[in-house]
Amino acid sequence: MARLKHWVLLAVLGGALPAAAEPPRDSLHPGNAEVWEVPDPNGLSLLTDTRRRTPSGLLYPYPPEVYPLSDFGNGWLGRGALETGYFWVGGDTRETRFTRYVERKDGPLLDLLDLELWRPESGDYLMLRAGSVGRHDQFYDLEVDRAGWLRFRGSFTGVPHNYASDAISLFDGVGGSVLTLPASLVPGASTQAQVAAAFAGRGDDKVEVQRDRTQLGLRVRALPQLNLIAQYGLEDRKGEIPTGVGFAFPEFSTSLGETLEVTSPVDDQTQTARASLEWGGDVAQLNLAYNGSFYRNREASLTLAQPFESLGLAPIVDARLALAPDNQWNNIRADAAVNLPLRSRITGVFSWSRSTQDQDLLPPTIADVTIGAIDLANWNTTAALSTKSAHARVDQLLLDVDLFVNPWRPLRLRGGFRYSDRDTHTNYLAFNPSTDQYGYVVEDGGFAASLGSEFVGIYQPTVAGSNWRYRNMPFGESQLTLDLGATLALPRRSSFDVSLKQDDIDRDVSERSETTERSVTVSANSRALSFATARLSYQYVTRDGSDIDYDIYANYETRSFPGFVPQFPDGEPAINLNQMVRPSLADLKGQIWNGRLIFSVGERSDLSLSGRVRSNDYDADYGLRSDRLRGFEAEWTVQPTPAVSASAFVSLESHTRRMGSIRGFATSSNGDAGGPNYPLDNQWSTNASGDAIGWGGRLTVQPLHWLELDTRYTFLVTREEDRIAFTNAFVLANPDFSAPAPADFPKLRSRDQTVETTVRIALHKSVALKLYYRYWRSGIDDYHQTDLPTQIGRRVYLGHHDLDYAASFAGVAVQVAFGSGR
User: Fold this and answer.
1) Distance between CA atoms of 681 and 683, rounded to whole angstroms?
2) What global pTM score does this model have?
């Protein structure tokens, strides 16, 4: 309860939530947490007999009835509500997905606290809301206003993130920064059978992180045209997350390689701050702002023992991995807008930010063994570092100017210019001044434990192919965007819109340094028919760029050193297939269609139909070749009376992806398809496809003034399938020649159903009984997890499985309201 007392005190003192932040919520009361809402039979206006519709043609829902407030004296009016009860959970409640982001358990619960006070004479206003009080998913929200000049808001939200409820860890010390082996195992000297036996006595562990977020904000109207704004946020995380550690990574194809799935500690804080001035006049508006984010990690590293025997090589008995470093981001931003003659307007944005990270660096290893000619004792202190801290910095500049012109009322023109530049300063040099050697110990000695001294990660001039990256690459880039557009209003409540856009990107270090992307978008909107609204848009995108050059990375590797001895007579092995490039850089021809049709079915019903098609073709024989997406949704709503509303929906989506490559074997520096490294006989391809189908509905009825029923049902089924093709089994990492390879992988399926029902029975004008029932049923077919053991050879896993489950949540609560005027 200490957490509860702390945040209740914060709410009383007056926290503040920035206006743009997402409102706090819990599982029973999403959104504004209102508990006594009933529809206003008058709708939006007393002046019309028919329902009102949005500009898109959809019916506005019946707004909630505004109840008179109680007089609390001294000019204050108010109302409030309290909801508390007892709740039960049943079924497969230990399944991880049942409590992924919420806390559900048997017991009493103060589900909601709601208080509003208003003083019309001065415009003073106070609102306090809270939910799931005292639990890990609790929330609090406070707002204090003085009309016309002051707003003060604050919130606290707790979000648990359950990664696994059934994890089985080989290590002791889960949740901490040091993981040790059980007494039955000897670091660096245990057989696979001994590790398997140690697992037998291990129990289930829960792997989760608790995220608590506080947000404060103050807005003051200092002058009629000037607002001062201050905001502060604090996010605190504690717990552990799954992570992987590789020894001989990524040589999984060897029997000596190993990988360990372990837990990494989480104990960090992120503080955010914003201060701004907003000035608005009749002709011009100006905003000046400072933004900052400051991350601090209380855990600097994770140390763990390596269980398996080294099989004759120098054993690496433990390793230390650096965790996320402390860092900060500072930004200044100016937004300006000026109204011009002829209904024209120009807007501009200037933004500059600097991100820095200067964490103290850890020694390359904590090992002290000798591997071949490499004595790791020369690498396990800070004397092996060229600099004692990171000195990392990223500067980013943004300039964005847009002009809107309306020379003729039916015609609106716009044009924009946007330039951004990211400059990276991460010039770390992996050099050991005590030994005059370049490089670093790979995975804290993991390579050496399996493959020998030439794989340690340290440059050795006499060893052929001793190629390692020894300094950071500057991943900066500049981007220039130009766009033009026009909107023409047509007769019969219709309009036509067209826009042209070009993006030019210049990257500091990339296999493709320059790309240009162009797009044209046209759209039409029409309400020419009194009973329907139609919208249709089409976009065509192309992208091309400079030649592909994978040798650009050589300047950051030891192969650029004078006297370097290549692995093969013609040079170092190609690091990639020359004809393959990342999808974000590849040539592209893409199309996107979007359409929506809304029918007004009488005065109290809607039917909405929408669809989309996306088609991307990459001009590449290898890598991602194409991807397609098709989707369709239909929704029907009806509101015959304020006491009855119903809706039903169906959603369909499918997608396909085609990709392929050639499995390479290092025999030369030739990176071309069909060359000695990438023979065409080693080609493979895969066609991945999937679809999702969902449907459901909702019914809300109030057959009697004291009885209300709200129930909804949703169903979603997804399917994923991969078909593979290859010329021979050698393209597989670990082929089984005793049986033919399959032509496709097993299908991945999931099925999820949810039923939510709430019944409210009014016992008195200010007292009600609420009955809650939630039911979840989920099925999953995932061959990746089927019968997945905690150990496969020299690979160790936490053993988490997503399983089929059916679980329910039910409760009875009493709602007490005051100030509702009833």
Assistant:
1) 6
2) 0.90
